[in-house]
Amino acid sequence: MKFTKxxxxxxxxxxxxxxxxxxxGTLNEAGLDMRKTLKPEIDIPWSKESVKEYLWxxxxxxxxxxxxxxxxxxxxxxxIYETLNRFLGEKLGVHTPxxxxxxxxxxxxxxxxxxx
Length: 116
Known about the structure:
Elements: H1 10-29, H2 48-64, H3 74-92, H4 101-114
Helix pairs in contact: 1-2, 2-3
């Protein structure tokens, strides 16, 4: 019998990228900017892309040995989120909840209303 893992859903993918955006905002609001190794005196704000590359992806690689978020199944996202959320809380004192389905649907409605 062959088991196939269920790939993440489109809604999970949207929630994942929304989470990256929310974490970036939380870190920036807390004054916890990125620092370039060669230029530590320069403030570099977080973006959803930098959250993905510098926070999410290293945990993903270390815990699950998966290089791309496209390889993640439904359970993987929870595993990585719990690790990242624990780190952000313990080390930096910030917490960003993972977006709910309702939040994503509301955001989609707002976007559609402003673009029609």
